[in-house]
Amino acid sequence: MMRGSGFDGGLRGVKTDPPVELEWEMRPGGMLVQRRLLDPGAQPPPMIRLRICYGESKFEVSVGPRATFRELKKELEAETGLRQAEQRVIYRGKERENGEFLDRCGVKDRSKLVVMEEPSSRERRYIEMRRNAKIQSSALAIAALSLEVDKYAAQVSAIEKSISSRKKVPELQITTLIELLMRQAVKLDGIVAEGDTSFQKTLLV
User: Fold this and answer.
1) Per-residue pLDDT tens for 20-75?
2) Are 129 and 122 in contact (CB under 8 A)?
3) Phi and psi angles of residue 190, each rounded to the nearest 5 degrees, phi first
4) pTM for the whole structure
5) CA angle (14, 17, 19) in 5-degree steps
């Protein structure tokens, strides 16, 4: 029969390590996981090359295996033209969260990933393209009208000069010029302008 005192005495000479404190982080979706702690003195692992498919484009990027998908998206911005918030990265048929680590998801050298554009981002891009095209069209129309008005401006200056010199100006010449300018004003009024083109339109009026 073993006595309690003898058992305690056997443990007194054993040196035990202090308890290790673990750090935790909250992942997207509310999942609590242990935070990855890296040894600052350890050599970083070699870079891995990933095969990326984005629409009809195929290219490769190099990242560290311990990088997160957020860091990967940052590398993909230049190749795809999409901001991080506009990207969806698919690996093994599943969309990956920004805070997930590549190696913990099984991503390794030569792994294939698919990048897609967020549907809402695609819609915003389409609306922005249409708006820019409309502004460009308005700017061209205003520029064309400006050239026409410049032609009439010379005639207006000539008439004003004649009147100031007390020279008689045919009424038909004045009414014809007024009619031509009014036609340009009607055309200008029909142009929908935004931003800088709105200022150009006001100036031309």
Assistant:
1) 444 555 655 555 554 555 556 667 789 999 999 999 999 999 999 999 999 999 99
2) no
3) -80, -5
4) 0.48
5) 135
